[in-house]
Design a protein that fits this description.
The protein has 237 residues and is mostly helical. The protein has helices at residues 2-18, 32-45, 49-58, 60-65, 78-89, 91-106, 120-148, 160-167, 178-199, 206-210, 213-225; strands at residues 226-228, 234-236. The protein folds into two domains: 2-118, no CATH class; 129-236, no CATH class. It contains eleven helices and two strands, in the order H-H-H-H-H-H-H-H-H-H-H-E-E. Strands 1-2 form a two-stranded antiparallel ribbon. A hairpin with a 5-residue loop joins strand 1 (226-228) and strand 2. Helix 1 (2-18) runs antiparallel to helix 6 (91-106), helix 2 packs across helix 3 and helix 7 packs parallel to helix 9. The longest helix is centred in the middle third of the chain and has 29 residues, at 120-148.
């Protein structure tokens, strides 16, 4: 249904999408029709950027819907971030996007009586929230795996098992209600702070830990994704 009824709308929209790009500046862009299709499938199936690109790589349904060959190369997930910025910056892009959203409703892929408003701001904002949470959780996972090779079992904190199960052994379902995802985002900030505070007391491993690349990345993620409140609390930025 998507390939037959929605994809042709993407092709028709291509001329307007081209206006969002500078044709003689920088390297060639990824096909905007494909990016628009991936963005809409992210919304329909409620997945963040990195998972969206993985589905484009491996999911036969996504490939068929978006007119992709089996062995077609995919792009980096950060391309979707830039594409959303272009859509929001250009009025033409937003209008095209909302026109195709109407096509989703006409095809029955999105209910007409949707519980929340269905426009470009809402759709793109929903994807951004899930992608931010994915960034936080993936950064914590990588930091824990890195520290696992640095710290001996006797040096691990008592809460290590909880974090390991939460971020390494578990995979979050991004179709969880938005209020629960918001709690997970808050929890991620609290867990980063908890881990940082404990590491500050590990003087015998301080020099090694300071060189840990994933911990440095985690510090950056904390600064970019959260606003630290007075008293040590965190709120998502």
């Amino acid at each position: 249904m998507f390939a037959e009824k929605i994809y042709p709308l993407f092709v028709e929209a291509r001329g307007g999408l081209e206006k969002c790009y500078c044709l003689d500046n920088g390297r060639p862009s990824v096909e905007p029709v494909l990016l628009l299709g991936v963005t809409l499938w992210q919304f329909v199936e409620k997945v963040p950027d990195r998972e969206g690109v993985e589905r484009l790589r491996y999911h036969l349904g996504w490939k068929y819907a978006l007119n992709q060959e089996m062995n077609e190369a995919v792009f980096d997930s950060t391309v979707l971030v830039r594409f959303r910025a272009e859509l929001l910056e250009h009025e033409q892009g937003r209008l095209l996007f909302e026109g195709i959203l109407k096509g989703l409703q006409d095809a029955g892929l999105v209910p007409r009586k949707y519980k929340q408003r269905l426009d470009s701001t809402h759709v793109l904002g929903m994807i951004v929230k899930r992608s931010r949470l994915e960034c936080v959780r993936e950064s914590i996972r990588l930091a824990l795996q890195e520290l696992d090779g640095i710290l001996g079992e006797s040096l691990r904190p008592e809460f290590w098992g909880v974090l390991w199960e939460r971020y390494v052994e578990s995979q979050l379902d991004y179709k969880t209600p938005e209020v629960e995802l918001k709690k997970k985002m808050q929890q991620g900030g609290e867990d980063i702070q908890r881990l940082r505070k404990w590491l500050e007391g590990q003087k015998e491993k301080e020099a090694v830990i300071q060189q840990a690349a994933q911990m440095k990345l985690l510090e950056r993620v904390l600064g970019e994704q959260y606003a630290i409140q007075e008293g040590g609390g965190e709120e998502s930025a």
